[in-house]
Every structure is written in C-alpha cells, then in structure tokens.
C-alpha cells in the first residue's frame, strides 16, 4: 500500500508497530480507527502536495520506553 508521507507519519505517531502488524493491516481498518479519524477528516481538505510536521501523540507510549 502506498501512502502520502504525512499520512504515513500520522499513522506511526498514533500506533505502535505491533498494533499495526496485528490489527491494522488493511486500509479499511486504519480508516475505521477512532485515533486516526480526526486526522483523516482534517487532511481530506488539503491539496495532494500538502505537508506538515507530525508530532508523536501524547496518548501513545512508544515501545522503547
């Protein structure tokens, strides 16, 4: 699956690698995920070449901590 860079960053800012591998392997599963819904609604109105920095979400604990 190909993703725009900002979408790829947003996904990894919200989910661990394990969560992605276990539960979110299909685009439909990602679109249905509540933690991504706000981002998807926001980015839907942006032009295709839009880019903005993405911070790690405060509710996600990185696996290395």
Plain-language structure description:
- By secondary structure, this protein is mainly α.
- The chain has 4 helices and no strands.
- Helix 1 runs antiparallel to helix 4.
- The chain starts with a helix and ends in a 22-residue tail after the last helix.
Concise overview:
With 65 residues, the protein is mostly helical. It has helices spanning 5-14, 17-23, 27-32, 34-43.
Q: Which key terms come to mind for this protein?
A:
mainly alpha; 51% helix; 4 helices; 65 residues
Topology:
Layout lengths: L4 H10 L2 H7 L3 H6 L1 H10 L22
Helix pairs in contact: 1-4
**In percent terms, what proportion of residues is strand?**
under 5%
H/E topology pattern: HHHH
Cα(first) to Cα(last) distance is: 29 Å
Kindly state the mean pLDDT as a whole number? 83
- Helix proportion range: 40-55%
Secondary structural class: mainly alpha
Number of E-type strands: 0
Uncertain runs with pLDDT below 50, 5 residues or more? none
How many separate helices? Answer: 4
Taken from the alpha-carbon principal axes, the silhouette is globular
Report the radius of gyration as a whole number of Å.
12 Å
The major sheet is characterized as: none
């Amino acid at each position: 699956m190909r993703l725009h860079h900002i979408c790829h960053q947003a996904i990894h800012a919200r989910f661990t690698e394990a969560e992605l591998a276990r539960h979110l392997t299909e685009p439909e599963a990602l679109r249905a995920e509540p933690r991504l819904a706000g981002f998807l609604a926001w980015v839907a109105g942006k032009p295709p070449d839009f880019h903005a920095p993405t911070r790690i979400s405060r509710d996600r604990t990185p696996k290395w901590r």
